[in-house]
Amino acid sequence: MNRLLDVRQLSKTFIQNGSVVTAVQDVSFDIGEGECLGLVGESGSGKSTLARILLALERPDCGEITLAGRSLLALKGSALREVRQHMQVVFQDPTASLNQRLPIWRSVIEPLDNFPQVTPSFLTEVRHSRRAAAARLLEMVGLSADFLDRYPHEMSGGQRQRAAIARGISLGPKLLICDEPTSSLDVSVQAQILQLLKTMQAQLGMTCLFISHDIAAVQSVSDRIIVMKGGRIVDRFASRQLMDADRDEYTRRLVDAVSE
Ligand SMILES: Nc1ncnc2c1ncn2[C@@H]1O[C@H](COP(=O)(O)OP(=O)(O)OP(=O)(O)O)[C@@H](O)[C@H]1O
Ligand SMILES: [Mg+2]
């Protein structure tokens, strides 16, 4: 399997009330093309900081990030913009990526408006019309055309997260980073959203980084799992090896926390 993302010795500290907090410490991993890597850890373990660094929303203190062989941290301006189209994100709170004052189709189509030259293969026939492209994207995530003109507040949490996923896949990204995409949802809806993400990943051949504090959710979508604690990776294994005897004690604690 070719590597899509390669992360080497990434570290990031913050200053909080005059003292140094190490959010990410010497983190290295890679993700193969078409693979889903799960990232699990308790609150404050550095998961979102790592995601934000990958998305160039935060700068690391040191380390190296390579996407499809291209070093990311040195990129600026149009080169950074060009790479951004290949890395999209779905956050825990769908309202963060949906404009409350616009009908949903406008939020879904926004990335395509920002990159007019991009036409992913699944939108070839509808790209001429922004509304038709939005309708196609909504259909892909299980929302009918009735939703085009709804406002976010007129939708359920699960429907909003579906729309956020439609937006996330709209450019046909190489890498989709999902940061706790099901954590704000009802348990019954969580399973549907996990299934949708799995289906989208397979259909579009996307590579995923799936972040959650819920190790059961992570295992259900991921090929491999890395476990973070206090900014460091403390365990890494294939998903099917989650219950193996040589799992780190901390990983076992996360497993026990689910069954409690
Ligand atoms: N902008 C910031 N300024 C100062 N400290 C920060 C900042 N962002 C994160 N931190 C700190 O870095 C550490 C890691 O936070 P991070 O949000 O990455 O954790 P997380 O694993 O995503 O947690 P959660 O599961 O609650 O989302 C925490 O101690 C947090 O307080
Ligand atoms: Mg987080």
From TrEMBL:
Which SUPFAM superfamilies does this chain map to?
P-loop containing nucleoside triphosphate hydrolases
Q: Which PANTHER family match?
A: D,D-DIPEPTIDE TRANSPORT ATP-BINDING PROTEIN DDPF-RELATED, TRANSPORT ATP-BINDING PROTEIN
The biological processes this protein is annotated with in GO are: transmembrane transport
Give the protein family: Belongs to the ABC transporter superfamily.
> Which UniProt keywords are listed?
ATP-binding, Nucleotide-binding, Transport
Protein name as catalogued: Peptide ABC transporter ATP-binding protein
Mention one GO molecular function. ATP hydrolysis activity
Against Gene3D superfamilies, the record matches this protein to: P-loop containing nucleotide triphosphate hydrolases
Q: What is the lineage of its organism?
A: Bacteria, Bacillati, Bacillota, Bacilli, Bacillales
| UniProt source species | Paenibacillus elgii
- Pfam families per record: ABC_tran
Q: Where is the ABC transporter domain?
A: 5-255
Key word Transferase present in the record? no
